[in-house]
Design a protein that fits this description.
Elements: E1 4-5, H1 8-30, E2 35-41, H2 45-61, E3 64-70, H3 76-88, E4 94-97, H4 107-113, H5 125-133, H6 141-152, E5 161-165, H7 172-181, E6 185-189, H8 196-201, E7 205-208, E8 226-229, E9 233-236, E10 242-245, H9 250-254, E11 259-260, H10 267-287
Parallel strand pairs: 1-11, 2-3, 2-4, 5-6, 5-7, 7-8, 8-11
Antiparallel strand pairs: 9-10
Helix pairs in contact: 1-10, 2-10, 6-7, 6-10
Bound molecules: nicotinamide-adenine-dinucleotide (NAD).
Nicotinamide-adenine-dinucleotide (NAD) is lined by residues 142, 165-168, 170-172, 189-191, 196, 209-212, 230-233, 267-268, 271.
Length: 289
Amino acid sequence: MSAQILNGKALAQTIQEDLKQQITTLQSQIGRPPGLAVIMVGNHPASAAYVRNKERACARVGIASFGKHLPADTPQADLAGLIQECNQNSEIDGILVQLPLPDSLDAVALLNQIHPDKDADGLHPVNLGRLLRGERGLRSCTPAGVMRLLQSANLDLTGKKAVVIGRSILVGKPLALMLLEANATVTIAHSRSGDLAAIARHADILIAAVGRPQMITAEMVKPGAVVIDVGINRVTDEAGRSRLVGDVDFDGVASVASYITPVPGGVGPMTVAMLLNNTVESYRRKHQP
Ligand code: NAD
């Protein structure tokens, strides 16, 4: 292996320690801790694990988390009412709706009801619009986490060719805009792109956000490229053991890349750190606009 590991777990810990310090200082001025409402509907096991993880992270840095865990058959109107309550609650600075929601619910309509200034996940159209316009706003957590990882390696993205594989509103599209903001020349590839290997091989910075286990192999990577693996896929081996892998064939790609993120321990912890960061950001802005 020649690539250096971009350790998201360690960087996320450093960010959380810094947030904890900031909260201690701000709380003595503001008189209350920052608050994050975590809305979860149903009992999806992976979602429950993500929510637990986020609530524990809140506790570690001193953010009060308001868990709103509701049954899968909760009507749309009740959830909309809950979001309105959270919008009006002055102790809540961030609102997170854990996705996916049950199919019976209109997730987009609910996300759109979150006040943009409390949009801890940075997915509201107003915040996505601010990103598009290069204005200050709450940034989507996973793409913001990727950008912080790149910054941590002091990589100057100016003029670099960045290829983002995946065009979701959660990851691919906002990440492409952030890379553009950092002066990279950006290509977005997706399921209809064709000859993905040829597109990927152009990349100085290659980001996989697809959801296909180990689809990016060493032959698809330019020697010396920086490879960021957003994918999280659960696979089961022949012995029936299950484990998490990314979209990148880590061992093969690590032999040609200059930097690489592991899964787990890469982008995942950074997403949580950016969620906390957004919550603290809206808390601070309420008092120091
Ligand atoms: P998504 O399903 O919404 O989007 C996947 C994208 O991949 C689509 O735009 C699609 O066009 C593209 N795609 C599918 N097959 C392809 C192919 N063969 N070639 C090229 N492109 C292809 O998924 P998402 O929400 O963007 O998530 C992507 C992955 O990232 C998933 O594994 C998800 O679990 C993971 N994820 C991780 C984090 C984190 O914190 N690390 C956060 C969000 C998502």
